[in-house]
Amino acid sequence: MSLRLRPFQSGDAAAVVSWLQNERSFYQWSADRYGHYPITAEEMERYYAPQLASGRVYPMTAFDESGPVGHVLLRFPDEELAVLRFGFIVVDSAKRGRGYGREMLELALLYAFRLLKASKVTLGVFENNPAAYRCYRSLGFSEVKENPFVCFSILGEEWRCLELELSRERWEGQESF
């Protein structure tokens, strides 16, 4: 497996929405950002369009020789451009459990710290998504203990979101590139 990362292209949305095969996985991916399931490729592209104009949002597609295999959104939540947030992280449902997510996020971290010069990367993960949580922890992310939990009311349940972060210093200390 040898992935590469490139900016999201219009045709990638069809692949991404096809990987979200049920409501639970859709909401684990998007929380409440879209408001309904399922979404179309056009809705995903419309969601990104105004954000791209800000110059602080970088939707990325991981791909190999077979085509798109993963997606991650990198965004600076504020004007300081120091802390970068990862979101909308997903891997092709047919390829999960094979290390694609980890490899995609390693590339995204390299992009975040080396090219975008972020001082820290943050992300949120629902407690009911233990595979994603383990992946993020294996990359060096740690829980932000002093942060209050954010809860979402999804599918008639309360989903608690854990906040994770990885500093540039910690990443550089474990870097194996």
Question: What would you note in describing this structure?
Answer:
The protein is of the alpha+beta class and 177 residues long. The protein has 6 helices and 8 strands. It has helices at 12-19, 23-30, 41-52, 100-115, 130-138, 168-174, and strands at residues 4-7, 57-64, 67-75, 83-91, 120-126, 142-143, 150-154, 157-167. Strands 1, 2, 3, 4, 5, 6, 7 and 8 form an 8-stranded mixed sheet that branches. It is globular and about 40 Å long. The mean pLDDT is 94.
What would you call the structural class?
Answer: alpha+beta
Q: Biggest sheet: strands, sense, closure?
A: 8 strands, mixed
CA-based gyration radius: 15 Å
Number of helices: 6
Query: How would you describe the shape?
Result: globular
List the helices and strands and how they pair.
Elements: E1 4-7, H1 12-19, H2 23-30, H3 41-52, E2 57-64, E3 67-75, E4 83-91, H4 100-115, E5 120-126, H5 130-138, E6 142-143, E7 150-154, E8 157-167, H6 168-174
Parallel strand pairs: 4-5
Antiparallel strand pairs: 1-2, 2-3, 3-4, 5-8, 6-8, 7-8
Helix pairs in contact: 1-3
